Automatic annotation (TrEMBL):
The lineage of its organism: Bacteria, Pseudomonadati, Pseudomonadota, Gammaproteobacteria, Alteromonadales. One of its GO terms (molecular function) is ATP binding. Its EC number is 2.7.1.107. The active site is at 73 (proton acceptor). This is Diacylglycerol kinase. The keyword NAD does not apply. A divalent metal cation binds at residues 32, 80. Its main location: membrane. It comes from Pseudoalteromonas ruthenica. Substrate binds at residues 13, 34-38, 73, 102.
């Protein structure tokens, strides 16, 4: 039995996946104000991370939590788009899905704020 692989195999599949990634990021940037704001924050925090982190693992943690926020925002945007695609009428389950996506973004932002807050506190504490 032969399986039908719509996305291809090998290098062709990787190229298609990268193309889809580009389209997804482009769509999020063009259509989602929250994603643009969080991406701007990521660009601001990235250079600051080199001054705040005292080890490579600490730096990695600072970057990972920023990326976590972006990933969760992309998933939230996908949930919202799919929910609206299925139906734009008000429905309790549609609202619940969108609210849960929003809650996930809020929790990711809270995690990032905690990690960055403690890191900045530790970085400036010796100067107090």
């Amino acid at each position: 039995m032969t399986s039908l692989k719509l996305n291809g195999q090998g290098l062709g599949r990787i190229v298609k996946a990268l193309r889809c990634t580009y389209w997804g990021l482009k769509a999020a940037y063009k259509g989602e104000a929250a994603f643009r704001q969080e991406l701007t924050l990521a660009f601001i925090l990235f250079p600051i991370s080199f001054f705040v982190a005292d080890t490579a693992m600490h730096w990695l943690a600072l970057i990972v939590v920023i990326l976590l926020v972006l990933v969760v925002e992309l998933l939230n945007s996908a949930i919202e788009a799919l929910t609206d695609r299925v139906s734009t009428e008000l429905h309790i389950l549609s609202g619940r899905a969108k609210d849960m996506g929003s809650a996930a973004v809020s929790l990711a932002l809270l995690i990032a704020a905690l990690v960055w807050g403690v890191s900045i506190y530790q970085a400036v504490r010796p100067y107090w």
